[in-house]
Specification:
There is one protein chain. The chain is mainly beta. The protein is 14% helix and 58% strand. It has three helices and 16 strands. The chain has helices at 5-17, 21-33, 38-58; strands spanning 61-73, 84-87, 93-96, 106-122, 125-138, 146-159, 162-175, 178-193, 198-211, 219-231, 237-249, 259-273, 276-292, 299-314, 320-321, 324-330. Strands 1, 4, 5, 6, 7, 8, 9, 10, 11, 12, 13, 14, 15 and 16 form a 14-stranded antiparallel beta sheet that branches. It is elongated. The mean pLDDT is 91.
């Protein structure tokens, strides 16, 4: 009875248990094509992902992506929403900000892509490398067009339930076709799979930031934190992380540009049906600057909030469309 989907699914599970991962994945995909309920299809997706993970551990894997976006941004230049401000260092005289210094709204389009490679080295070690980039152009505010490119290279070690990763990173950011900032850094991470549904992690990162025309902003940036993720039985996934962050100016006598902070992130995703995934997240970061600003004659404090909501609809196995809305405010 070749159309017996339950029998085919059990055969696929048997292939997976025997380690014949490619045949197992083919059988699972055949079951999906025959038409099954959404919850069964999502379960099959997890089996297919498990089969691919086994293959990925033993062969060189090269993956890539292309993406294009179109949207609207109420503040393309991340400017303040006030047109005038009093500066105590100049006798509290009111200064009128230029048009490009306050918030500007505009539509935008972007295109990006990347490639990643993973090569097993034996004894649980694997080599990792990647390149990515994105270019964003505004419809009318071209002076705020941006481009950025990033590269990373590193190594990972898997020991039973533990995964250790060390990555070197570098990147460059362009604003209005001029180099604005570049960075180099190092990231370390430890993850432990407590069981099939729970994962914890610890991470640390150092970045050397250099600004092309604002050398006083050059800084050493540090981040360290911990994370937790949980997969529910219905396929929903939730995560949370907390971290410490700090920046130290590299030039002397600009200590007011340095800060220490703390942040938290929570979010998750859930399967609506076999082709649709909902996702969302909340972020908060508090920054306390180290010295009094010489112009404003006060010490700066930031509260930054973020909200992201969206959905991904898979048109095919390879292509999807993702409408989303993001809100960020920094006080």
């Amino acid at each position: 009875d070749p159309n017996n989907t339950r029998a085919r699914a059990e055969i696929a599970r048997a292939y997976l248990a025997l380690g014949e991962t490619q045949t197992a994945a083919q059988e699972f995909e055949t079951v999906q094509r025959q038409g099954v309920p959404a919850d069964v299809s999502m379960t099959i997706d997890r089996y297919i992902a498990a089969a691919r993970r086994v293959d990925d551990m033993n062969t060189t894997l090269v993956t890539g992506y292309l993406e294009a976006a179109i949207g609207y941004d109420s503040n393309v230049n991340a400017g303040p929403n006030k047109s005038t401000m009093a500066i105590p260092g100049f006798g509290s005289l009111p200064f009128v900000l230029g048009k490009d210094s306050t918030s500007n709204e505009d539509g935008f389009g972007s295109i990006g892509g990347g490639v990643n490679v993973r090569t097993p080295l034996g004894d649980g070690y694997a080599f990792l490398g990647g390149l990515s980039g994105v270019a964003r152009g505004n419809f009318s505010k071209q002076q705020f067009d941006t481009q950025n490119a990033d590269a990373n290279i590193g190594i990972t070690k898997t020991v039973d339930k533990d995964v250790y990763t060390l990555m070197a990173q570098t990147g460059v950011y362009y604003l209005d076709d001029n180099r604005y900032r570049n960075h180099t850094g190092l990231t370390g991470q430890w993850q432990r799979n407590l069981d099939a549904r729970n994962q914890v992690g610890v991470f640390a990162q150092y970045s050397d930031l250099h600004y092309a025309s604002l050398e006083s902003r050059d800084a050493d940036r540090y981040v360290a934190g911990a994370s937790y993720a949980h997969l529910y039985r219905d396929g929903m996934m939730a995560f949370a992380s907390a971290y410490l962050v700090g920046e130290r100016p590299q030039e002397r006598n600009v200590d007011w540009l340095g800060f220490d902070g703390v942040g938290v992130r929570v979010g998750g995703r859930m399967n609506y049906d076999a082709q649709t995934v909902f996702f969302g997240g909340l972020t908060y970061e508090r920054r306390e600057y180290n010295k009094q600003d010489p112009l404003f004659l006060t010490t700066r404090h930031d509260n930054q909030y973020g909200l992201l909501l969206g959905a991904t609809r898979y048109l095919t196995k390879e292509w999807s469309v993702t409408p989303q809305v993001a809100w960020t405010v920094n006080e």
